[in-house]
Structures are given as structure tokens and as C-alpha cells.
User: Fold this.
Amino acid sequence: MSNPPTEFYSEERWQNWIDRIKDEDIDPEDEDSARLLLNLQDDTAIAVAKIVAAYDDGELGEEEALSEIEDVREIVLGEVDIEDEEKLILVDGVQTSLVCVFFAAEEFIASGPAEEGSVADYLGAAADAEAEEDLDAALGYAAQAGTLIIDGEDLDMEIAEDLEYGLVTEWINGLDSLQSAMSDPEVVEEDE
Assistant:
């Protein structure tokens, strides 16, 4: 069953991914397992990129676009029914990575790209805020970096290598998926 053109993401689509994860032996060290989790993340980022593109092209108004993003967010960030604790933790990691993708897209639609600073500046500020345990500020800065990525600026993944592992590095993973979705129209096209 394919999605109607007005639906960017569906509960069924998310559940198909979750069912695949339930059915497979997942080992984060294994390339195929890692790819499955990355595909789950990329698939959501592609849906968000399509919404932003539809807004940019004038196919969706601001309210419609924000509502579509909210719909995808509710599906993807909802509670996942997986009994295997390790798999649940891995899916939770994907969900955490995507939080920033949703905020960045909403910020871009509501206010456009950040006007000052670079992707690296904002991610550095996010890491500093996280170190001070100001997670709201950290997410705000990471989302600003995301608006610049949506606007076409590059995310250099080496930034993440210099940071202590935490929420900001998870969010950078999500922003990397968003960058791929925004920059590669072949990937963003509807895959039937």
C-alpha cells in the first residue's frame, strides 16, 4: 500500500521498520544491523525533508507544513513496542537523533535559516550548553545548525569526533541524515 501524495509518513511505514528490527538479530557492531538502524533514521529524515521541500515550493503553507512535521514526530517519537531491551535502546537512540531534525525543520519553516554563525558555531554552542546541562539551549543551538543545513550549508562530521559523546553527538547523527535527505534528490524521491 503506497502513501497518498498528501501523506508524507505513516504509522504503518514506521511500524514496518519496527517489525523488521523485531524480526532480525540486531548487533550494532554488525554492518547490516547498523545499516537497518541508519535506514530507519534516514527514512524519517527523508519524510521531513519532503515536507520542508513542499513548503519551500509553496505546495504547503506554514501551518500545514508544521502540522505535517508534528504528525511525523508523533509517529516516530511515540512509545515503541519492542520487548528486547537492547533493540529498544537502539531504537531509542534513533529517536533521540531525530528529535533535532524535527526541531530544525520547524524552526526553518517558522523563521527561516539562522542568520548569524555557521553550522560548526551552533554545534559548538550546543556542546557547551550540554556541558553546562542546559539541554533546552543545547537543542536550540543544534536546531539552528539544522536550519543552516536545510538551507544548504554543509555539516562536517568531524565536528562530532571532537565532542564528548552525549545528546549533541546523537543530534548531529540526525542532522547528518537530514543533510543526506536534503542534498540527494535521488534519495528524497518517493520510493515505491
